[in-house]
């Protein structure tokens, strides 16, 4: 084995197939998309060189500004709730249910595997007002509150999207963080309990510091996923009402494939990629700073 890994030719032969696949699937599309940012048009209508005009349009486009605000706001809210509620679920599995958590974990995880369109149709029915009130509006009527048209206002539509995404994903983050909590040695927990730590003190002083690596991974995974939200919004509101719930991904899709401008769509994709990169680097730097202080 040492002779194989010490041979540069053998290493090249072993790595070459994976490298070819990576370059073909990842690097070529990325570089192609980056090149599109200097052009306008599409493969059907033809491309015209426009230089940095797409970047100038992006900076002054109010719809992109609205999409950016929605994307960032959605990412902050959903990421915070996903990680916080997932961590609470994980603590519940470990310290309350313990061995009886298998059934609960399965039931809570079940929405993760459901198709997005099916979940969107479910939430449309739950929050519907026409042709008949959904379950939510029926409950509001029962307590004396007038029915609300959730999908006619940007704020209420945003709330429904957040609730839908949390319902779909909370089981995944619960299981992910639960696996991280299982790596904490039992003798450390027992020693802390013998020293008088229990309940909130045990979680704050022992469990939370030891689970920071998996929390960091969950945070990065969540925020990158929420910044790139697409199918949830497309299936539930299609970016409406107006463009109040249109994320950058949907704006990119519309520009490239609905309006036939691959250049401007690729420029929006570049903005989204830079945003994901900056956020990930920010999370890493903050975590490193916290670990250094600790």
Give the key terms:
14 helices; two-stranded antiparallel ribbon; single chain; 74% helix; 2 domains; MetI-like fold; mainly alpha
List the helices and strands and how they pair.
Layout: H1 2-5, H2 8-36, E1 39-42, E2 46-49, H3 53-60, H4 62-97, H5 101-109, H6 116-126, H7 135-142, H8 154-182, H9 186-194, H10 200-210, H11 212-227, H12 231-236, H13 248-258, H14 262-293
Antiparallel strand pairs: 1-2
What does this 3D model show about the protein?
It is a single chain. With 294 residues, the chain is mainly alpha-helical. It has 14 helices and two strands. It has helices spanning 2-5, 8-36, 53-60, 62-97, 101-109, 116-126, 135-142, 154-182, 186-194, 200-210, 212-227, 231-236, 248-258, 262-293; strands at residues 39-42, 46-49. Strands 1-2 form a two-stranded antiparallel sheet. Helix 3 crosses helix 14 (262-293), helix 4 runs antiparallel to helix 11 (212-227) and helix 11 (212-227) packs antiparallel against helix 14 (262-293). The radius of gyration is 24 Å and the shape is globular.
